[in-house]
Amino acid sequence: LLQEILHSKMFFIGKSKLAEALDSSSGIPTDVTFKVQDGKGGFQEFQAHRAFLALVSEVFKTRFFGSLRDTLDVLDLQGTTSQAFGAMINFIYHKDCGWGMKSAEDLFEIANIAEMYDIAWLMVEVKRAVIRIPVNLSNVAEL
Questions:
Q1: Cα 65 from Cα 76, distance rounded (Å)
Q2: Which of 10, 19, 78, 113 gets the highest tally of CB atoms within 10 A of its CB?
Q3: Are 33 and 7 a contacting pair, CB within 8 Å?
Q4: Where are the beta strands (DSSP E) in the chain?
Q5: Spatial separation of the C-alpha atoms in residues 47 and 37, rounded to whole Å
């Protein structure tokens, strides 16, 4: 029993450790940067770890470690917003996503990227957030 407990602890990574991994002071350097247009004519950069993203998403796994792998250190992304991509990265690394502050439009963008990168558990969280949006005359068309 003790061996089982010790063995299981070896593979447990606390959520706070994952959130800290994006901080440069963590001692675990990121190895990929994503540049996403911010909708204001500029772009926002997001850093991450290829191996960790590959564990979360088959799409990332194929992109980083497949036969036609992407070896660039900086990747330009299109087809999403910086807000949605940032929410996905925060969700993957167990950082606060501010679900209660997201508009319906934001949530639909996040759902789009969750589908694009095949991250089912992000889609589940988006659905939970959408359900919590109160429907009224001012936002019914947005929904």
A1: 18
A2: 113
A3: no
A4: 32-37, 43-48, 74-77
A5: 15
